[in-house]
Amino acid sequence: MIVFDVVVDGEVKETIKPVNQRLKEIHVYVQEEAVRVQEQYSGSIYLSRRVEYN
After folding, report:
1. Measuring CA to CA, which residue among 33, 37, 35 is closest to residue 18?
2. Buried b (16+ CB within 10 A) or exposed e, 37-48
């Protein structure tokens, strides 16, 4: 499962877990979430992608 960590000033604040794992849908979802995260947190924001194995 592909997940995205929201890193603010070098600290992981939250993890975004897309419900659907299709790449086209993940792209749209992450773009929408990035806008929300930018409004929620101030400072240096970085989205880090990683794969989570169950």
Report:
1. 33
2. beeeeeeeeeee
How far apart, in whole angstroms, are the C-alpha atoms of residue 50 and residue 48? 7
* Cα 6-28-25 angle, rounded to 5 deg: 105
Report mean pLDDT in 10-residue bins for the chain, 54 residues: 94 94 94 93 91 91
SS3 content of the chain, % helix, strand, coil (to 5): 35, 35, 30
Q: Which domain holds residue 37?
A: 2-51
pTM score, whole prediction: 0.86
Instruction: Domain count for the chain, please give it.
Output: 1
Rounded distance between C-alpha atoms, residue 1 and residue 21, angstroms? 7
